[in-house]
Please model this.
Amino acid sequence: MSRTSAVLLAALTITAPLSAQRIGTTRVAAHNESFALADTDRTGGTASSTLTDAVRRETREDRRPSIPAMVLAGTALGAVGLFAGGALGVASEDCGHHPSEFCGLGGAILGGLIGESIGVPIGVHLVGRNGSLGGEIGASLGVGFFGVLAAFVTQGVGIMLVPPAQLATSIHIERAANK
Model:
């Protein structure tokens, strides 16, 4: 190593601010709490550790489902619901009496919209497990209804905003129930 680089290294080491490493929030307290609760079941045993309110809040927040997981599950089951509802919609139309090239299209669109409106909140609820599934499905169907109304006003562009709005609504309901 050259003399210049040794002097530079020494100068940087001396002038660099020194800071101690700080242990962040650890999971040890929550782990000790579970053992302390188990110790209280024994006769004569006392719980040796208690969690502070801040750690309790933090461990509750750690159990909150992640938003990306809810988005992924809602999107996947929304797509399944879209195709399943579309298939049921096509099957429900009677194309035998009035055959045309667009026969079944209306049923596919309506069935797909209803299937997607039910699939998204089910996917979000499977990850979150705290909100009201009926409330989430009702809100999702309401968003779908207003999306169809917006599609008439915006020449079809408004329907593109329905799935993200349904995802956001279902996630909001799920996260609000977790508090």
